[in-house]
């Protein structure tokens, strides 16, 4: 059951990230937060405080005055539950993850 839940979570994260890639193509941090939401503590050292903060806040119910990025991530996550969205494969995200990790380390 845990393996099935992990697979569903990964697929949902990929669909969320794919939607954010379409709606916010230049915001790599927001896209990666969609990919990894729910893993805040694990990603902060590698991908930075913004990604971790967005991942930590999600999934959050609609709030009266949410932070714009958190609200964008929440909306994409809700939309990602739609069946039929082809989000590709996790390996497609490797260049974006490497770019953000290099930025956090101060490389490039």
- Total number of helices: 6
Cα-to-Cα separation, first versus last residue = 41 Å
**Major sheet:** none
Mean pLDDT: 79
Q: What's the count of strands?
A: 0
Q: Please state the structural category.
A: mainly alpha
Radius of gyration: 13 Å
Proportion of residues in β-strands: under 5%
List unreliable stretches of 5+ residues: 1-7
Relative helix content = 55-70%
The geometry reads as globular
The helix-strand sequence is HHHHHH
Explain what the structure shows.
- By secondary structure, this protein is mainly alpha-helical.
- The protein is built from six helices and no strands.
- The chain has helices spanning 2-23, 28-36, 40-47, 49-57, 68-79, 94-105.
- α1 packs antiparallel against α2 (28-36).
Overview in brief:
The chain is mainly alpha-helical and about 110 residues long. It has helices spanning about 1-25, 30-35, 40-45, 50-55, 70-80, 95-105. It is about 65% helix and about 0% strand.
């Amino acid at each position: 059951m845990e393996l099935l839940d992990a697979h569903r979570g990964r697929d949902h994260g990929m669909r969320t990230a794919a939607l954010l890639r379409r709606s916010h193509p230049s915001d790599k941090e927001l896209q990666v937060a969609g990919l990894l939401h729910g893993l805040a503590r694990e990603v902060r050292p590698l991908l930075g405080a913004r990604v971790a903060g967005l991942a930590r806040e999600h999934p959050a119910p609609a709030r009266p005055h949410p932070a714009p990025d958190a609200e964008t991530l929440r909306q994409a996550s809700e939309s990602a539950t739609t069946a039929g969205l082809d989000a590709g494969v996790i390996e497609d995200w490797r260049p974006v993850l490497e770019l953000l990790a290099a930025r956090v380390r101060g490389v490039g």
